[in-house]
Amino acid sequence: MTGALAGLVLSLGMIAPPMTAVAAQGYDLDTASSLQVVVNKHRQLSPTGYVPGPLVAVQGERLRLQAADAYKQFAKAAKAAGVNVLPISGYRSFSQQTSLYDSYVRQYGQATADTLAARPGYSEHQTGLAMDIGNASGTCALQACFANTPAGKWAAAHGWEYGFVIRYPAGAEATTGYTYEPWHLRYVGQAIALDMHRTGVATLEDYFGLEKAPDYLR
Ligand SMILES: [Zn+2]
Predict the structure, then answer these.
(1) CATH architecture of 28-93+122-208
(2) CA of 174 to the centre of ligand 1 (A)
């Protein structure tokens, strides 16, 4: 093959959308311990009782080591900019998620419970890669208005620099199965977070070319 032809073949390969290019790089979206595992209402963790390790303490919450390191840098940079970000909820075990979900089912019934918390085995929090954040003041904690607070604005503007994405963006409920959660950060690593920021692809489902997951299959 001549150099020119090889160059043409390479550039044809580059025409593929980012999600294909990335998938071809070999990210593991299926294994529970993968830093790029994709969990949603169609993709239950396997095994359902998966426990990540090692888990590291972050101001009273826990995250997997890589996510914890990134989170600490993220929060430190925020503080240097005058924004006090606090962790609200990090790792949750299968049994903790079961208690949370069951309490919602008892209070509101299953249909409403499904809009409030993931079913056990379907929560990103069980991967140790997700953190719900808040403001030190408590303003708009776990509410959509969090997006307009200092911590919410910081997360949207700078989270990607540390490898985090806003996992449930506004207007993507038909894809992610969740309404806007500007407080829920998911660690995916800097390469993917940067690429999603650069390309404007809002969800992991779209980025990796996965099917939409608006509801549980059963
Ligand atoms: Zn969350």
Answers:
(1) 2-Layer Sandwich (3.30)
(2) 18
CA distance readout (Å), 208 to 17, 23, 95, 204: 10, 6, 29, 6
205 has catalytic annotation: no
Please give the distance, rounded to the nearest whole angstrom, from the Cα atom of residue 80 to the centre of ligand 1: 25
Name the band, by pLDDT with cuts 50, 70 and 90, for residue 107. very high
Asked whether 48 and 120 are in contact (CB, 8 A), the reply is: yes
pLDDT (average), residues 12-18? 45
pLDDT surpassing 60 at residue 154: yes
Phi, psi of 32 (to 5 degrees): -55, -35
Instruction: Flag the least confident range among 20-29, 110-119, 205-214.
Output: 20-29
3-state SS class at 213: coil
Query: Ligand 1 centre from 130 Cα, in Å?
Result: 6
The contacts of residue 47 (CB under 8 Å, 6+ apart) are: 32
Give pLDDT, residue 23: 53
